[in-house]
Amino acid sequence: MLLGALAALIPLLVHLFDRRRPRPHPFGPLAFVLRSQKRTASRLKLKRLLLYALRTLILLALPVALARPELRRDAEAAQVVKGPAATAIVLDASLSMRWSDGTSLFERGREEARDALSDLRPEEPATVLVCTGEPSAPPPPGFDRGRLRALIDEAKPTYAAAELSRCLDIAARALEESPLEGKRLVVVSDLTVGALRLESPPPTVKGPKGEPVRPEVVLRDAADGKESLPNHALVDLKVEPALQAGPRAFQFTFTVKNFGEEALRDLEAAVRVEGTTLGKGFLEVPANGTAQKSLTVRFDQGGTVTGEVVLTPDGLAEDDRRAFVLNVPRVLKALVVNGAPHATRYRDEAFFLEAALTAPGSPVQVSVRDAAAGWREDFGGYDLVYLLNVTAPEAAEAERLRAFVEGGGGLFLSMGDQVDPDAYNARLGELLPRPLRLVRTSVERDDPNAEEKAAKLARVEVEHPLFTPFTGRAEEGLTGARFYRYMLLEADRAEAEGASQVLATYEDGAPAVAVAKRGKGRVALLTSTVDRDWSDLAIRTSFLPLMQRFSAYLTGSLDEREEQRVRVGETVTLRPEGAQGVSAVKGPDGKEVPLKTQPDGSMEVGPLEQPGTFTVLDNEGKPVRTMAFAAMLDAVESDLSRLPQEALAAHFGEETVKASAADAERPPVPLWTWLIVAAAVAFFCEGLLLRK
Amino acid sequence: MALLDAQTLARLQGVKLRARAVMEGVLSGLHKSPHQGQSVEFAEHKEYAPGDELRHLDWKAYGKFDRYYVKRYEHETNLRSVLVVDASASMGYRSGELSKLEVATTLAGALCYLLVRQQDAAGLALMTDGRIQDVPPRASAGHLNVLLDSLERATPSGGTNLLAAANHLAEVLPRRSSVVVLSDFLDENQEALKRILALRQRKNDVSVFHLVDPAELTFPFDDPTLFLDMEGEGRIEVNPREIKESYLEEFGAFLASVKSACAEADVDYELVRTDERMDEVLLRYLAKRGRRR
């Protein structure tokens, strides 16, 4: 057929040999003919050349087209075409595949997966694995293309980081079920740094003798070869009380990372609660850098607040927001019963405590009463009761106090000269963390060596929420305090409702601070005084925060502030208190999340599949706001830097990786149709030129 | 009137017959002759001066006024016309029945008939072979034969030399004469047309019949052709289809330039295709002139 290409010489031969003798014609206006010829000479020359080229093209294209040539795009691809191979198509469904520039990477990936499926030869069995955070084994390779296509169609991108390497291993295991010798893995992914663990070994399948053999790997790029996928993300969020701005003020500290090659300017960061923007700021983030921004937000009311912080959205909008659940302290009403009032303010038993609890930023409203007035108060109107060096109450008052604590109130007891251990044990024995024994004097205050001989705190449970702030140098504020006298305590009583917990001890091992739960309430006992009679703790820097922590702890708000840092894909453990029951947990989309009760009574929720706020429902189906929690995304998926081709080739092996796998398995493009089209176009153009 | 189409005229041998046929067609087409009363009617008296013809002395006036007066008649102020016919080789070109020269001589002959019929003096300047054959204007009926014989003998030869004709006419033609030029104006000398038109500045009444062959206007050639120059040795081989568009542009521009030059010089211009009916050409021409009077 290709000999027919010699026909392309025909125009040249015609040009050379067809010199027809022109007809002579005498003509008057010869000058005009001459002028016209000069004018059109250059155009005619070009036209003749074009005509010659077009005619040559027509006569060359037709015989070449009849030879039915085909275009193979990639020489390397041609080399790896082998016999039929069992194929596993692994579709990356990780969070990063949600990146979109109008069409999401996942949509493109799904299209690639469909193409990969239709490009398979009829004799090649196939399977499909949608690679999520928790991938399950795919069906064994088969020929039911419809089912596989449905699997691809139904696949959805997740919010979790997917381990593509693990998915490839699972897919490779599935391929081993096929008797065909050829094995092929088709990877449809955005090929970002978070997608593959290049340090892990490449996938292998068992060879005929059981030896590990590398399967053929075809990479289909869902990002269409884009060099970069610009993205910024909220990688960290810290929410801390901002007491300087008020008792219900919080500081939100955003950490934003820019994974793009261009700096970001005027990136908006906002705190939103129930659709209302409470705070807004702007950041500038350098290329491939991070920036922090702090916003202080003051809440009007206490209680559990659910909201979200958001950045200006980009291609991957999911990582530009993060939900939070915050327990805003409500106003705490405290009754301070002063057992030893004094006309001189600083000698008053309640002076230092009152000053600490009413400091700016404190959520506590303090009412100070002397002992007589204090016992007459209705405890129901208070959240907290402080008994400072108070004589033991009468039985009826003690009973009222017990009812208050068991109903959820907080009780703080400090010792002093007015405290009679026996009377306390008799009247308040059920409430005390431990029974009082007797007063121990380490040194008299007026002793010249009192500073040295006084007792000090030797062990503090800094892990406990009460003492969490007193770590490092802050611990000195506690350990530096001198205790001249303190109450010794008995061991735990067997009949006591709940075990007490000693959070701080003196050098001799005697308890300094003991706490216990009584009913729904809590009781804390300081075995010394809160004025300067038995110790100098009241004038130490640690006193103010410690007293504020006591009030928070006793009302339960200290526990509630502990943030649950849960990532999507993980499980969270809920510990309902007392008789509080949990019937269900609902995700941000309103769907129920798997819930498992553990032997210790705690509930395991998850794995959580999406970011946002999760609502916990009690036995009556009502939301327990204090147990709500938020799940966040794994920042690993926000880094959309692309894996270099060389690294991929090194990982999977040069001989198996196809640079543009999308082209490799496609059938060769029939070039002859294009030649026919070219000849037709040339014919049409020739006609046009001739008519001119 | 079917007699007067180009095909029929071509069958009539000789200028005399053709010119007469055309003239008769013209006369029948004129509803009212614009030339009536231009014979020998009295026009005015003029006081006698030596040299005036004594036969024109008005004796009655002498009896009344005792002074000599000479009668002047209209026929003495009659038109003196010269027909300039281009008989160069290019005028011999024909693509149909009649060549440009045949059409030119027929038109000239018909005009001679008309002029002599109204007792105007008609002369002829025939440009052939680069020379001028001059027949001086006369108004006598016998002069018509002389004119028609000269036209009969005209054969296309040599180059167009309008410049020589213009110079000749400028020398011999008195003022206020009528000059009718019949040519294809394919003269390479750009000054020639200007000189012809310059005759208008000498108070002469100049008319131009621009003769073109239909083939010159439409360039209807398809096959590769070797075009030969009719007035020289030039030759050129072209594919007519390739240059047709350009040729038509060039030739159209040439026609327009001649026409606009005539208009600028206040000269009557008539484009004559050789396949046109000649009586219509003359009627068109005469009507145009009638409007000008």
The termini of chain A sit apart by 34 Å
The CATH architecture category of the largest domain in chain A equals 3-Layer(aba) Sandwich
Question: Which sequence of SSEs, written as H and E, runs from N to C of chain B?
Answer: HHEHEEHEEHHEHEHEEHEH
Strand content of chain A: 25-35%
Q: Which chains make the largest contact?
A: A-B, 21 and 32 residues
Largest beta-sheet details of chain A = 8 strands, mixed
Q: Give the CA-based shape of chain B.
A: elongated
- Low-pLDDT residue intervals, each spanning 5 or more residues of chain A: 74-81, 659-665
Q: What is the helical fraction of chain B, as a range of percent?
A: 40-55%
Strand residue percentage of chain B: 15-25%
Provide the residue-averaged pLDDT of chain A: 84
CATH architecture descriptor text of the largest domain in chain B: 3-Layer(aba) Sandwich
Overall average residue pLDDT of chain B:
81
CATH superfamily of the largest domain in chain A: Class I glutamine amidotransferase (GATase) domain
Head-to-tail CA distance between termini of chain B? 28 Å
Number of domains of chain A: 5
Report the principal-axis shape of chain A: elongated
Task: Supply the number of helical segments of chain B.
Answer: 10
The number of helical segments of chain A is 17
CATH topology of the largest domain in chain B: Rossmann fold
In short:
The complex is a heterodimer of chains A (692) and B (293). With 692 residues, chain A is an alpha/beta fold.
Walk me through the structure.
The complex is a heterodimer of chains A (692) and B (293). With 692 residues, chain A is α/β, with parallel strands linked by helices. Helices cover 26% and strands 27% of the residues of chain A. Chain A folds into five domains: 2-19 and 32-72 and 671-691; 84-228 and 641-667, von Willebrand factor, type A domain (Rossmann fold, 3-Layer(aba) Sandwich); 232-321, Immunoglobulins (Immunoglobulin-like, Sandwich), CATH 2.60.40; 332-559, Rossmann fold (3-Layer(aba) Sandwich); 566-632, Immunoglobulin-like (Sandwich), CATH 2.60.40. Mean pLDDT of chain A is 84; it is low at 74-81 and 659-665. Chain B is of the alpha/beta class. Chain B is built from ten helices and ten strands. Mean pLDDT of chain B is 81; it is low at 31-39. Chain A binds chain B through residues 20, 22-37, 39-40, 44, 47, and chain B through 90-91, 93, 100, 184, 186, 188, 213, 216, 221, 223-231, 234-238, 242-243, 246-247, 249-251, 254.
